[in-house]
Amino acid sequence: MKILTLTLLLLTPAASFSQSPFDGGWIFDENSFQQSEKPKPVTYLVANGTLRCSDCFASPEITADGRDQKVHETAYWDTVSARLVDAYTVEIIARKAGKTMYTETDTVSPDGSTLTKVVKDTTEAQPVTSETLSQRVKPAPSGSHILSGSWLFYKKSTSKVVPNVPAISYRCTADGFSAWTPLGERYDAKFDGKDYPVEDDPGHTMTSVKLLSPSEVEITSKRNGKVVSVLHLSAKPDGKSIHGVFENKETNTSSSYELRKLQ
């Protein structure tokens, strides 16, 4: 489970011949992010030494004793641990081959109405931290940890990557496109329909790029030969913004967002 913002940005390319409207450094406008479906509540149950979660690394159930436990393997984790930090906080850590990939810290407010989720992505050399806020929509069962119950997301703060630098940079030629992030992830793809690797990606994502017009590009991403996402990008002629529509083939959902040119 890569941080959603970086996943969307990295799988996003450029187009054209001399000066492409995609070329340059870009910042993700989180206020523009829209999903095709309304967010669904996430349900936790922390009781009797176990953690259950409807939509997290620990799904469906693990022992909350701080030990690494085998879970269904994905491209980004194969073990998960959980521990009760205190009466209001639970920490969940996802690892792949022993390396810490994500650390999720869930903290409930003293009045039990607000959940603050902080996720630290350490899949790359430079950590990325994101924070989301959710409100309680179902109370915790009697005798369970205060994290238990159902929560509905309502706010996400800006992901903290590297200050004062673009979140993603693009370069396009007549033959293909290159993208790279401050974290080291990059790819160089040709407009030939072939799959090209996303370098420094622990999930081993492969990407193919299709040039639809000088201002439109379609990107298909695969893991283990299976299509996991399709992204359609449209750049404004003035080169100051890009509109992206992202289709997640694994969850059958879609989202849209805007990129702003870094001045």
What do these coordinates show?
The protein contains one helix and 20 strands. Strands 14-13-12-1-20-19-18-17-16-15 form a ten-stranded antiparallel beta sheet, covered by helices on one side. The protein has a ten-stranded antiparallel beta sheet with strand order 4-3-2-11-10-9-8-7-6-5, with no helix packed on it. The N terminus is likely disordered. By secondary structure, the protein is an all-beta fold. It has two domains: 134 residues, Calycin beta-barrel core domain (Lipocalin); 115 residues, no CATH class. It is 3% helix and 52% strand.
Note the topology.
Blueprint: H1 4-10, E1 24-35, E2 42-47, E3 50-53, E4 61-63, E5 69-70, E6 79-84, E7 89-96, E8 99-108, E9 114-121, E10 128-138, E11 149-156, E12 168-172, E13 176-180, E14 186-190, E15 196-197, E16 206-213, E17 216-223, E18 226-235, E19 241-248, E20 253-261
Antiparallel strand pairs: 1-12, 1-20, 2-3, 2-11, 3-4, 5-6, 6-7, 7-8, 8-9, 9-10, 10-11, 12-13, 13-14, 15-16, 16-17, 17-18, 18-19, 19-20
